[in-house]
Amino acid sequence: MESLLDIAGPLGLIVLALVDSTSMGTLVIPVILLVVGQGGALRIAGRTLLYLAVIGVFYLLLGIALLAGLLPLLESFGHLLASPVVMVVLAAIGVAMVIWSFRIDPKAIAKRGGDPEASARKWTTRARRASGRPSLLVSLALLAGLVEAASMIPYLAAMGIVADMGIGLGRGALVLAGYCAVMIVPGVLLCGVRAALGGGADAFLDKAHDWAVKNATSAFSWTVGIIGAIILLNTLGPAMNLLTGG
Q: pLDDT digit string (tens) for 19-28?
């Protein structure tokens, strides 16, 4: 059966990993740590790299655990995904994701009187408290991973692509390791900028922080909408045939 996420495997994974690299946990918080950190540039960069390593390993282990549960399910029940009833359910999920993507867009949140940057401000406060202590940075990374795990749509889509490749758990884990590495690459590069330029990187990092805060929610909403549209396009035909008796 063709993948419900009908994207070229490696290319789709890279795109999803780059989207994940702009999330609160993988970009916004690291930039905050680079901006508010105390001490020399190398120390600030080193502590931020510690944070990135922890959250990267957290996502990798979580992904391997989920993939280990997903592969046996697909082997046993994968044929059911092609059934018309399941197609109707998946089509409904696709529609729901598209609608939800519009609701979580920052402009839509602002129109409803909400504050799309409220979450970033909370994480800024947490990052300031943790920036000077490695143990707190580890806790911050684990907390960010746990909080974002509830909305890890791109990562779940990536695991769907990996499972559909039919490469097994061992090689799938290696693919996920590469995925998680791509997720933290932008943060690692910014650490390099801080280490190399020291205080000279302040203006650039301030701009990177503002961009990350403004675009993290927007990138997530677009991804949810695109994945929902792909699921809908791949299931709409069979779903309509069942509903219309065709």
A: 888 888 898 8
